[in-house]
Amino acid sequence: MATGLVFHEIYMWHNTGNFAGPIPFGYPVQPYEHAENPETKRRFRNLLDASRLLKQLTPIEARPATDTEILRVHTRGHLEKIRSLKDQIGVDAGIFTPMGRGSFDIALLSAGGVVAAADAVLDGVVKNAYALVRPPGHHAMPDLAMGFCLFGNAAISGRHLLDVRKLERIAFVDWDVHHGNGTQAAFWEEPRALTISIHQDNCFPPNSGHLSENGMGKGEGFNINIPLPPGSGVGAYEATFDRVILPALGIYKPDMIIVPSGFDAGAHDPLGRQMMTSEGYRSLTRKLVSTAEALCGGRLVLCHEGGYNAPTVPFFGLAVIEELSGIRTGVVDPFLELMNGLGYQALQPHQDAVIRKAEELVRKLESKVRHV
Ligand SMILES: [Zn+2]
């Protein structure tokens, strides 16, 4: 069985306007381009094509998410607000979330694309899948668009898996450099979803993603944040996976793993200060593929989130999809040597201290699972 890919050219037509990075009009700065523009994603898809990996993947048809699907995560008020803005140009739908004409329908297709990817994996049409969707979703709160995200794509697919497809347990491993606050909020009191986010400490949203945020009520213990210090490299990421994320997954035993996949933890990213490399992402993917094989028949769905450095992101994405598919293209990442040479790529003591605290959360999860 092949690896599935969700992509649609229409995703690239979501127009975020000519901001200066994340900074909107109205500030005294020369307009440039919005950080979340199509280029990183289009180049990712183009490198899949140029490397000849694209034609070895199984295309999965995206379809719009329905109101019912959106409302499993979002309030009616939020859905209707975003719908009411569909013909506006350059409006901010919430906090740092610009929309253009057509963005509402594109956002529905983005959320529906991740649902389609999850269905294709669950139905055995593909062995695993990457949903290269846009706009991203992991910051969208139940009642608020945030951080370039209109609807919680990953969370919506998760609710679909639990409520419609009747999976007993799902797990999220969010490796975007920013906190997966929207996914966390969507399952805050839900023990049927383990939400894990590895991110840069206090990057975005502000004051979000602390170790102390563990879920509430029946969901207490089923949310794990690992806020790594700025400057964390491949060593810190691999140690976090080996000591926190993979053990947590092993205890929880999900029926499917969903990865909100941002490549903004990459070295050179304008919106993050971590030092991940293509080989680092390859290594994390290899760990997740083997964990998914051991726990849930290999069922693994990645959905695209951030990643804003257009030259380097495609090589991160190619490495990930090579690992998912088991196909090596022979393409050499021209940035790898530069990133490996940055220094401090190995685990540092102050990063180890954070991971040690997160290991306590794995023990807490173990006691919770035993009592469910
Ligand atoms: Zn991000």
Descriptive overview:
The chain is of the alpha/beta class and 372 residues long. The protein contains eleven helices and twelve strands. It has an eight-stranded parallel β-sheet with strand order 2-1-6-12-11-8-9-10, sandwiched between helices. The protein has a two-stranded antiparallel sheet with strand order 3-5. Strands 4-7 form a two-stranded parallel ribbon. Strand 11, helix 8 and strand 12 form a beta-alpha-beta unit. The longest helix has 23 residues, at 349-371. It is globular and about 50 Å long. Bound molecules: zinc ion (ZN).
Count of individual beta strands: 12
* Residue runs with pLDDT of under 50 for 5 or more positions: none
Major sheet: order of its strands? 2-1-6-12-11-8-9-10
Give the topology string: H per helix, E per strand: EHEHHEEEHEEHEHEEHEHEHHH
Summed over residues and divided by their number, the pLDDT gives a mean of 97
Q: What is the overall shape?
A: globular
- Alpha carbon gyration radius: 19 Å
Termini separation comes to 35 Å
Q: How would you characterize the largest beta sheet?
A: 8 strands, parallel
Give the distinct bound molecules. zinc ion
Q: Helices and strands: which structural class?
A: alpha/beta
Instruction: Indicate the proportion of strand residues.
Output: 5-15%
Helical residues, percent = 25-40%
